[in-house]
Design a protein that fits this description.
By secondary structure, the chain is mainly β. The protein folds into four domains: 2-147, Immunoglobulin-like (Sandwich); 156-186, no CATH class; 192-229; 232-274, no CATH class. It contains two helices and 20 strands. The strands form six sheets. A five-stranded mixed β-sheet has the order 1-5-10-11-3, with no helix packed on it. The protein has a four-stranded antiparallel β-sheet with strand order 2-4-9-6, with no helix packed on it. Strands 12-13-14 form a three-stranded antiparallel β-sheet, with no helix packed on it. The radius of gyration is 63 Å and the shape is rod-shaped. The model is unreliable at 1-25, 86-94 and 127-136 (pLDDT under 50).
């Protein structure tokens, strides 16, 4: 619904016998185009150029369901006394040529104003003095107030992703427009494994396996149990071989002796002609029937006793 409001701005000359002058040919009337969001206040300018007049009348048209007129303010192109409001008056001392803003109108934009462009129209017309002899002349123009789409305000909904044994947790914030981001990171929990359970026992020659299970996520970890190897007990044979029997699995093997650097075979047999540390210790013991050490000891004992006797005799002689 459009509402028509007439703004009557009257400038009355002090000399009543003078007639008013109509709008000059080529005069231009303009109304500004403005933009304001719902709930805001907007000011529209009404301008004129090259118009000679003493008095004028302005009519405004606008959509009152969207715009509410708050006030009208005098512009630089209006001279004389002026009062604002839906009805204003002015007094000019003489005719003059106007260029610039006649007046401005301030509107409130409704909070619920739909997105769109709304026309603000104006008609400026001369009117006569009391003698009623002046011809009327009309100037019409229109501007607009555009209500843009309101800026989008994000409204995020939080979705929590809990941490797992291996993955971090986080919160995803999502707006209805599709924008989203993640933050509030939480460290992964780590596995919580039970005790190892042997699923395949190792043998002397084959590896075994054992597993453990995470009580939180069910992850199963497997480890290899190395083969144990044979545990042989050996018997030395007279033909230069030995026979080994595994005490675990009973495996039996016969092989020729293979001697290590120390002269021993794995079966415990000693290579012929090998000198061991025990044999070297026996070399230090005198052979049976060898009296050389005893003779030497007796000879030393006799000399010692002779020397002691001579010493005692010398002491007695001296007394």
């Amino acid at each position: 619904m459009k509402k028509f409001i007439s703004l009557l701005i009257v400038a009355v000359l002090l000399v009543s016998c003078m007639a008013t002058t109509a709008l000059a040919a080529g005069a231009t009337l303009t109304v500004s185009n403005e933009t304001a969001s719902a709930g805001e206040t907007v000011t529209v300018s009404f301008s004129i150029s090259e118009a000679t007049f003493a008095t004028y009348q302005v009519g405004l048209t606008y959509d009152s369901s969207v715009l509410t007129l708050k006030s009208i303010q005098q512009g630089a192109a209006t001279q004389g006394l002026f009062s604002g409001g839906s009805k204003a008056s002015a007094m000019n001392m003489a005719d003059y040529t106007a260029n610039g803003v006649l007046f401005t109108a301030t509107f409130d934009v409704a909070d619920t104003a739909p997105v769109g462009t709304y026309t603000v129209g104006a008609a400026v017309e001369n009117f006569t003095m009391a003698d009623a002899v002046t011809t009327l002349s009309v100037g019409v123009a229109s501007g607009s107030v555009t209500v843009p789409e309101a800026p989008h305000v994000h409204d995020y909904t939080a979705t929590v992703t809990e941490p797992t044994c291996e993955e971090k947790g986080y919160t995803t914030y999502t707006c209805s427009c599709g924008d989203s981001y993640k933050e509030d990171s939480v460290d992964a929990l780590g596995h919580s494994y039970d005790k190892w359970v042997v699923t395949k026992a190792a043998t002397c020659t084959e590896a075994g396996a054992e597993t453990r299970t995470c009580s939180a996520c069910g992850d199963v970890e497997t480890a290899v149990i190395p083969a144990a190897g044979h545990s042989y007990t050996y018997t030395v044979n007279e033909d230069g071989t030995h026979t080994g029997v595994c005490s675990v699995c009973g495996d039996k093997v016969t092989a020729a002796h293979e001697y290590e650097n120390n002269g021993y075979c794995v079966c415990g047999d000693l290579k012929a002609g090998t000198v061991t540390e025990k044999d070297e210790d026996l070399d230090d013991v005198p052979a049976t029937g060898d009296i050389t050490p005893m003779v030497t000891f007796g000879f030393v004992a006799v000399i010692s006793m002779t020397a002691a006797a001579a010493y005692v005799l010398k002491r007695k002689t001296a007394k």
